[in-house]
Amino acid sequence: MSDAKNAKAFRWWNIALLGFTTVWGLNNVINNFANQGLAVITSWILIMILYFVPYTLMVGQLGSAFQEAGGGVSSWIRTLSNNKLAYFAAWTYWVVHVPYLAQKPQIIMVSLSWLFKGNGSFIKDSSPIIVQGLSLIIFLVFVWIASKGASTLNSIGSIAGIAMFTMSMLFIILGVSAPFITHVQIATPNMTDIHTYIPKFDLQYFTTISMLVFAVGGAEKISPYVNKTKNASREFPLGMIILAVMVAVSAVLGSFAIGMIVNSNHIPADLMANGAYQAFQFLGNSFHVGNLFVWAFAITNTLASAAALAISIDAPLRMLLGDADKKYIPKALLKKNKRGIAINGYKMTAILVSILIIVPALGINGMNDLYNWLLNLNSIVMPMRYLWVFLAYMMLTKQLDKYKSDYMFVKNRYVGFGVGLWAFFLTAFACIMGMVPKMNMSQDPSSWWFQLALNIITPLALILLGLILPAIAKRTNVD
């Protein structure tokens, strides 16, 4: 009896806090402010109501219906449809990490630049070829570390995650309070005018939605905890709504704090790369502690990125090779070394990421544009895995009699299907619109077209490779 009671020990506040540390970070605020300025505050409120809340509650029902599946999206798809579709879900989950892995070495180098040089000149002054060459070396070193099965990085990642959460909260508190305590001048004019916060809903605006969707994604990681929650039908949705409120408050106050430090009407080109450090440097000077906040954030970001890099080389690959039907994966990819590492899978990862590190440097002029482009590519590719969550939910609404759950998001199957379809459509729309480059075309037309071509070719190539592997498996997997 006591074991059963302990198994349902999670309460709504545990769910909210767990979700917050899983999906949220300071860089989400910086990156979207760089795209939209203070108008992003309205966008945050809209994305929370129209996307994030339905997304998290759909995940809650899926997690509750398939408790034995451990929360894996591909497991949901397999149960609701077939092994082939489940393979493509597992493939998507793995392959969207390729651009993510390509950017982490850049983030580590920017962090180290601020830690040892105290400024962001590295991203402005360095040649793309030199930086990407160093990025490739860093990435390959981490492939080697991950191939040794270094488990200590998991604990480093947990510590860095808590530290990053603390730095995000510290930034909001200091940023909002700075003008009142230190009497520094507010950077953005007319912050009391409502028109400052209203977006202009044009083509440029819609190309930035993918970054918002990217920022609030990943709630499916919370799904295994639905059935560990006391009174799940009431407390899980309450926890998810509180989570949405926490994220919204963090996003709104964070954006407001940046608006006090950075002029929303004249956003620096390097804000995505250097913005968090510049903001902490400004706050450190305002509170007379020098570069203390900068050093703390640089160390935190370095550790978090290093852990994420090593873990993301291994974990998504394990999910693909361990969860997908073996008849769709070439036998050679399943080969393991003495440490249980899928060594050929690592080689495939290394080749794809290396291509994505080096090729863009040949056609994108300026390290800052390259950094911003790779971040935007992540916002196009990473949400592709969320599509499978919404597809699974739509399929679940058609089989409610077969798959019961303690928690129901929407009891009417038609309404539920419609909400799932809306989230699927919005995600796909954001990914497609995100392909339009964010730079000014007239300033560098050749770089603009090169970025557009890469934004279209990269997702298509990654999807195509997922279609090719089953054909190879069919020819080579002969017993």
TrEMBL record:
Cellular compartment(s): Cell membrane
GO molecular function, one term: transmembrane transporter activity
Source taxon at top rank: Bacteria
Membrane topology: Multi-pass membrane protein
Keyword Glycosyltransferase: no
UniProt keyword annotation of Nucleotide-binding present: no
Annotated protein name in UniProt: Inner membrane transporter
Source organism per UniProt: Companilactobacillus kimchii
